Amino acid sequence: LAEQLESEMASSGGENAILSRCTLLRLLVEIGRAMQKTGSELPQPVVPRDGKILDILRYLEANLAEDISIDDLAAQFFISKYHMMRQFRAQTGYTIHGYLTGKRLMRARAMIAAGTPVLQASEESGFGDYSAFLRAYRKQFGAAPNQEKRANTPQKWENPT
């Protein structure tokens, strides 16, 4: 579609302008569909309108490695837990648990890529249970952390002599 768009834009004529706009629209739709398919790796923008939800997001970001319960979070921000969960979902598109898990997984993935051992990365990212971390990691990224680490590690070349 990109090549077709380029050739249509290079051609002159009024009908080509309309055709190139249609091709551009088709290209944008295909890009959007592709992004939705790989949406697990593409974080959606979070722009809350409510100051309390923004405060909660800042708190969660600053305390990712801590054990955070919904009840404690609601008590800390003087808000009903049910109202907080509804507002959080409405303004961010995520549940609180889903948001925390996603942020923790992204943090662990970055740590593993930087050379941190997998178990240490899972603990420092706030996962108390290693098996839960592995399940969530595989679900989010499609591979176990050790598989990704091996795939991204350059192999040594050994001289056979």
Characterise this structure.
The protein is mostly helical. It is built from 9 helices and no strands. Helix 1 runs antiparallel to helix 2 (14-37).
Descriptors:
mainly alpha, 161 residues, 0% strand, single chain, 9 helices, flat
Give me a quick take on this structure:
The protein has 161 residues and is mainly alpha-helical. The protein has helices at 2-10, 14-37, 51-62, 70-76, 81-92, 96-113, 118-124, 130-141, 145-152. Helix 1 runs antiparallel to helix 2 (14-37).
Proportion of residues in helical segments: 55-70%
Total count of strands = 0
Radius of gyration: 22 Å
If helices are DSSP runs of H or I spanning 4 or more residues, what is the number of helices? 9
Measured between the Cα atoms of the first and last residue, the distance is 51 Å
The percent range for strand residues is under 5%
The shape is flat
Structural class, by secondary structure, is mainly alpha
Instruction: Name the assembly state.
Output: single chain
The major β-sheet equals:
none
Average pLDDT confidence is: 81
How are helices and strands ordered from N to C?
HHHHHHHHH
Unreliable stretches: 155-161
